User: What shape does this take?
Amino acid sequence: MKKMLLNFRNRMFRLDDDEPLSPLSVFVLILLDFFLLMVLFQGLDAHSRLLSSPDEYIPFLCQRIIIDRDWTENNRLDKLSKIVINYHRSTYQEEKTGKMHPLCKEVMDAIDRVKTDKAVIRLFEEREQLIKLQNEKGFLAENDPKYIELSNEILEINQKINSNPKVTVLWSVIDKASVKQEELIKTLRNYRFIFPIYEILLQLLFLLPLLLVFYIWYKKSVNNRFQSVIATHLLVVVSIPIFLKMIELILNIIPEQIIKKFIDLLDSLKLIAIWYYIIIAIAIGITVLLIYHLQKHLFNRGKIIGKRIRNRNCVGCGKKLPDNDKYCFECGTSQYQACPECERLTYVNGNYCRECGKEI
Assistant: This one.
């Protein structure tokens, strides 16, 4: 495994065993890597938009109307007024994307028909002006005749709006949809649960063909080191988002809902401390594994001694030595040993003899 990884690393940064890439060539390759990563993540984002997100499938407005039942008979005209007036005055009209739940689509279509009706728009504009006039600071008291007159005008406009056929249909649609509140809550909950998994699988369908193409190029370019360098970098670049998406997929297989249910269960049994014990145990386990890996593979004694030999430091205490010193002047450690093959002096703790090249 170690030899395979070393060979892979050499294919990334060497044209031949004795011909490493120049620093400028490495810099150009790294620029290519970053550019391709950026393009890949943009492609993943564009690919994800092929699916309707939970808040596109059941829009926020539909959630407020049906699930939260935020629109009551007393305030629904005020809420509809804001939607109609904002739509009429806005210079940017948002385009609808993605699939929508049939129940929400019926509600949103009914709202769209209202907010594009010119007669309704004029009534809401007039209504807004009357309400502003009525609410001006220090203008009128509630028992003032003028205040009462404005209130009557507002009531009259409300009646005209409510009697508009499109508004009447809207209230009817909302009333029918509200009966299916529980059904919509269940649908939204299930969609939020399953959507991340669908999204990641769709993104992997975008990445895996690229991985296959780059892998085939990587295998075919063994005898052409120039192509091999490029293919190896491409393989690494496309593997990065795949690795991240696989981790994300695994995390979504054990979703927050399951963890939340487990915590709720412990809480109901008065054993919530167990959850914190588990977190502490996981943190300790990860730390132990990380330290073990670092010490075993990155900072083990063999690597430390190899670095000391290269820097002409004592293999025992690490102090800098003059050239050709056989013993350390600080700790007295011998720096050389006899090679069992050629019997000439070679470095203590070296893996190969510096004279004959045989493995020690």
Q: What stands out?
A: Residues 57-179 form one domain. The radius of gyration is 36 Å.
